[in-house]
């Protein structure tokens, strides 16, 4: 039944081409894919070449897709092979070595080349660009033999190259045509601060200098400028810019301007031929940065796979200089003109500079120097064309004073032998000891050293307070903490980067955002997997390997390695038939204990891993998600169907809500209760969402918790109809999904975000409520019962649950 | 497959093992957890956590060449079996080789007790 696959040929094995292929693979299997790359390497992260030069990363560290990836995805890869042209009449791609590959669709992603100045001597030995691994290797080699180097070009790449060469011990002068460094990304103020900082780091500058000739015999020995002065240099890096690599397109008769001209769906002038990345010219613009390439790739992937997509309408670009110790950032419009309102703050003592440009009150651009902690936030605000408000101003520029000085100092009176972390038995004395004697400054370090906060995390605030108490003022200067030890980025920064760069897999996130441990850890992997699924419910392919064991197996692991099975009983209501089935299966599979849970259902404890699929199949009931960061149960009281006090049908509403919202991923587990009257027998006050019926409708409570840290739920609002109730519940859930930190229960979330803010977002702002509902409905369309899904996927089922037996027949 | 020091047992092709998801293989009645890393390397350990409370290893999260044990989140270096600080201990690793399209586990020392 398999029809012949369409042949997709990708010319270019770099980030643009391969990230597009990755997107395509997620959407369809209809293509038989061949990739040509002129470099002899698999796809690597070109942005990180600066780190390789600097020595903080190796080549292996920056490979994005190793050869196994191509193999696993059935992609034919020709490395070290340059494509000469596309033969449209025969529908074949022709390589320089004569190889011909037939195509149905072609994707050109040839990137760009270093622009080499057309001056006498440019072809001498010792003159390189800074574009690829080969350039990088040449620079590393040169540093071993030669002492003086010149870098022509004071832009992003030139400065990164210069810093790398200084690091390698060379005497480096940056030669720049203009009076300001990075004039395409920075204003005069930031540029001069940058120059001063780089001079401190050992780079020399010659500004306003036009190079007219490279001197020397066979090998370069110096530069001559327009004013006839001369600079000695045994090695020259040309970093004056990049030139879209359009050779293939030109040779094939495709329309070319500065780059390969495409429409809003990345189609070139030749039918069935697309172009993406730095080689592409879209609406007159050629981009040389990574974010636009992801955005283009996403539109292209959908279009080529036959999925409806909004057209690509261009990108707002932002820049970050990758030199350690020099933080520069710019985005959008950054040179102020008469039409702009300028908010600027320069601090010569801390050497920081911050400028935000507004046009008619709307944020349109920003430049940061020295402190770029706000870069992700600014990028987001500017991309969304946010209007500046007093609150935003206060949060971005600071107001000079703020409340919150009432941090408890009760830790001061705590005895040294008092246990702080109950799970791992760590005392206050131990924590104080590692802070003072080992110089630890973050909760993460304390966790790694003592184990405190590692298990349930309930003691984290106390550990923080101890830190603050011991370090005193030193606490504020402690390093910024990321979501785990692998990154310094916060949850919001990560989510903003995923959106801005269109990142699609945990691996991509970790690579592009510079994780210190390349594949992350047990903290960040599940978190990133959740954020990706939340942002892209339709296209994100859930990564089983990034799920905790319980979620991966769809069952709860017990300490002896057996599992529990909890089928759904909507609203805590079951039938004699179901009970009989559960009893029979429990006997058949030797279940050790049948336990009535706190959430009004039954837990079959002690099922062997390999028996799980059989138990699910024979139960033929939906998964109760007792293992998941998802909707667990909706606990109900008897309600108006039978109870003489009941004013509302709590069992009916409970079952309705449970059916509607089950299976969706949340930041943490999610429990609900529905009560038929204010007697509250189903205990709404300790649930994430608690609902209490009354004579004229329902009252909704949020943020209750009966676990680690008990918290009574807050009253959110009252509604009159069932429809309104379901709407508000759905909107709260989606708002929590979108703003909650991974593993953050609603009890903490409500305190962090604030009840007023939640009210404003889901109750008062009806437009926003509608939008939240649309998004949750869309996400709900994508969910599927995991037990059924695994039962239908024999291969995966066997590999996940099946044990391989190797009897001793030898 | 007799060998002076170690007997190796064939336990299927590498693609029997999902990348970054452990699988249990039984050899002579002993459970062995087999892990295939994202770079293709394969490691095997007795399916028994070095944590004092014991429990399995196969279901842990695999990141690079580290395993985070599924019950207590201990971090174990699969190349050595060593538990990483602040915890201490060592998982019992077994030699692995891939030959003739087969994964082979050196479990000879276990066999003597079976």
Automatic annotation (TrEMBL), chain A:
Residues 558-620 form the Nitrite/Sulfite reductase ferredoxin-like domain. Residues 7-280 form the FAD/NAD(P)-binding domain. Residues 419-468, 483-532 form the BFD-like [2Fe-2S]-binding domain. Residues 318-386 form the NADH-rubredoxin oxidoreductase C-terminal domain. Belongs to the nitrite and sulfite reductase 4Fe-4S domain family. Residues 628-767 form the Nitrite/sulphite reductase 4Fe-4S domain. Keywords: 2Fe-2S, 4Fe-4S, FAD, Flavoprotein, Heme, Iron, Iron-sulfur, Metal-binding, Nitrate assimilation, Oxidoreductase. PROSITE patterns: NIR_SIR. InterPro entries: BFD-like_2Fe2S-bd_dom (IPR007419), BFD-like_2Fe2S-bd_dom_sf (IPR041854), FAD/NAD-bd_sf (IPR036188), FAD/NAD-binding_dom (IPR023753), FAD/NAD-linked_Rdtase_dimer_sf (IPR016156), NasD-like (IPR052034), NiRdtase/SiRdtase_haem-b_fer (IPR005117), Nit/Sulf_reduc_fer-like_dom_sf (IPR036136). Its cofactor is [4Fe-4S] cluster; siroheme; FAD; [2Fe-2S] cluster. Pfam families: Fer2_BFD, NIR_SIR, NIR_SIR_ferr, Pyr_redox_2, Rubredoxin_C. SUPFAM superfamilies: FAD/NAD(P)-binding domain, Nitrite and sulphite reductase 4Fe-4S domain-like, Nitrite/Sulfite reductase N-terminal domain-like. Pathway: Nitrogen metabolism; nitrate reduction (assimilation). Gene3D superfamilies: 3.30.390.30, BFD-like [2Fe-2S]-binding domain, FAD/NAD(P)-binding domain, Sulfite Reductase Hemoprotein, domain 1, Sulfite Reductase Hemoprotein,Domain 2. This is Nitrite reductase large subunit NirB. It comes from Paenibacillus haidiansis.
Automatic annotation (TrEMBL), chain B:
SUPFAM superfamilies: ISP domain. This is Nitrite reductase (NAD(P)H) small subunit. It comes from Paenibacillus haidiansis. InterPro entries: Rieske-like_NirD, Rieske_2Fe-2S, Rieske_2Fe-2S_sf. Keywords: 2Fe-2S, Iron, Iron-sulfur, Metal-binding, Nitrate assimilation, Oxidoreductase. Residues 8-105 form the Rieske domain.
């Amino acid at each position: 039944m398999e029809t012949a696959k369409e042949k997709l040929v990708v010319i270019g094995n770099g980030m643009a081409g391969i990230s597009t292929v990755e997107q395509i693979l997620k959407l369809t299997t209809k293509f038989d894919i061949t990739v040509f790359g002129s470099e002899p390497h698999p796809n690597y992260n070109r942005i990180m070449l600066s780190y390789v030069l600097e020595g903080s990363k190796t080549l292996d560290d920056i490979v994005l897709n190793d050869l196994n990836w191509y193999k696993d995805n059935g992609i034919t890869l020709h490395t070290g092979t340059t494509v000469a042209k596309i033969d449209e009449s025969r529908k074949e791609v022709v390589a320089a070595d004569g190889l011909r590959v037939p195509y149905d669709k072609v994707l050109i992603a040839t990137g760009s080349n270093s622009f080499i100045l057309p001056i006498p001597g440019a072809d001498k030995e010792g003159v390189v660009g800074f574009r690829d691994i080969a350039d990088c290797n040449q620079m590393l080699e040169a540093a071993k033999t030669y002492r003086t180097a010149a870098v022509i070009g004071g832009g992003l790449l030139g400065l990164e190259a210069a810093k790398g060469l200084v690091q390698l011990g060379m005497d480096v002068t940056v030669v720049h045509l203009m009076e300001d460094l990075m004039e395409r990304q920075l204003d005069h103020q930031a540029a001069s601060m940058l120059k001063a900082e780089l001079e401190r780091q050992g780079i020399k500058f010659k500004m306003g200098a036009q190079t007219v000739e490279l001197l020397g015999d066979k090998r370069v020995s110096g530069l001559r400028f327009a004013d006839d002065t001369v600079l000695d240099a045994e090695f020259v890096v040309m970093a004056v810019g990049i030139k879209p690599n359009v050779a293939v397109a030109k040779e094939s008769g495709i329309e070319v301007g500065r780059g390969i001209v495409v429409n809003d769906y990345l189609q070139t002038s030749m039918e069935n031929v697309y172009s993406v990345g730095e080689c592409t010219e879209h609406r007159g613009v050629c981009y040389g940065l990574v974010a636009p390439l992801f955005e283009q790739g996403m539109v292209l992937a959908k279009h080529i796979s036959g999925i409806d997509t909004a057209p690509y309408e261009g990108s707002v670009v932002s820049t970050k200089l990758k030199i350690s110790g020099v933080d520069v950032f710019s985005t959008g419009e950054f040179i102020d003109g008469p039409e702009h309102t300028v908010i600027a703050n320069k601090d010569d003592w801390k050497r920081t500079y911050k400028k935000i440009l507004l046009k008619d009150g709307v944020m349109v651009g920003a430049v940061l120097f020295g402190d770029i902690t706000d870069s992700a936030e600014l990028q987001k605000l500017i991309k969304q064309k946010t209007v500046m408000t007093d609150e935003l101003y206060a949060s971005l520029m600071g107001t000079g004073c703020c409340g919150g000085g009432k941090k408890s100092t009760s830790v001061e009176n705590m005895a040294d032998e008092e246990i702080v972390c109950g799970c791992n038995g760590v005392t206050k004395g131990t924590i104080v000891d590692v802070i003072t004697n080992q110089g630890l400054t973050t909760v993460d370090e304390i966790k790694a050293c003592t184990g405190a906060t590692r298990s349930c995390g309930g003691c984290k605030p106390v550990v923080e307070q101890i830190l603050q108490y011991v370090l005193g003022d030193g606490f504020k200067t402690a390093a910024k903490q990321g979501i785990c030890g692998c990154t310094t980025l916060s949850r919001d920064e990560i989510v903003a980067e995923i959106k801005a760069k269109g990142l699609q897999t945990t691996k991509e996130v970790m690579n592009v955002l510079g994780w210190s441990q390349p594949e992350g850890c047990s903290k960040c992997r599940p978190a990133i997997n959740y954020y990706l699924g939340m942002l892209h419910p339709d296209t994100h392919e859930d990564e089983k390997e990034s799920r905790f064991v319980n979620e991966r197996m769809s069952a709860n692991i017990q300490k002896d390695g057996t599992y529990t099975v909890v089928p759904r009983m909507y609203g805590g209501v079951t039938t004699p038939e179901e009970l009989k089935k559960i009893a029979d299966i429990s006997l058949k599979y030797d279940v050790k204990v049948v336990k009535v849970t706190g959430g009004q259902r039954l837990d079959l404890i002690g099922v062997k891993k390999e028996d799980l699929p059989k138990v699910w199949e024979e139960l033929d009931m939906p998964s109760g998600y007792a293992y998941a960061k998802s909707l667990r149960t909706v606990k109900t009281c008897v309600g108006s169907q039978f109870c003489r006090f009941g004013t509302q049908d709590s069992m009916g509403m409970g079952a309705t809500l449970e059916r509607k919202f089950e299976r969706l991923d949340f930041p943490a587990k999610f429990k609900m209760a529905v009560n038929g009257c204010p007697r509250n027998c189903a205990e709404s006050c300790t649930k994430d969402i608690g609902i209490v019926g009354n004579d004229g409708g329902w009252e909704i409570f949020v943020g209750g918790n009966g676990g680690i840290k008990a918290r009574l739920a807050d009253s959110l609002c009252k509604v009159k109809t069932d429809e309104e109730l379901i709407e508000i519940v759905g909107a709260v859930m989606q708002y929590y999904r979108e703003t909650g930190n991974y593993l953050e229960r609603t009890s903490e979330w409500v305190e962090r975000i604030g009840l007023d803010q939640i009210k404003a977002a889901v109750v008062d702002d009806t437009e926003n409520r509608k939008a939240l509902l649309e998004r949750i409905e869309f996400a709900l369309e994508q969910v599927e019962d995991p037990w059924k899904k695994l039962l239908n996927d024999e291969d995966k089922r066997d590999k996940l649950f099946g044990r391989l037996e190797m009897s001793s027949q030898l | 497959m007799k060998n002076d020091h170690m007997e190796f047992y064939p336990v299927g092709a590498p693609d029997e093992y999902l990348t970054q998801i452990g699988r249990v293989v039984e050899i002579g009645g002993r459970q062995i957890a087999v892990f295939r890393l994202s770079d293709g390397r394969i490691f095997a350990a007795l399916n028994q956590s070095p944590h004092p409370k014991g429990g399995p290893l196969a279901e842990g999260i695999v990141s690079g060449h580290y395993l985070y044990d599924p019950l207590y989140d201990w971090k174990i270096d699969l190349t050595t079996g060593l538990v990483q600080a602040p915890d201490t201990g060592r998982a019992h690793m077994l030699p692995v080789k891939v030959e003739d399209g087969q994964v082979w586990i050196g479990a000879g020392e276990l066999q003597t007790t079976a």
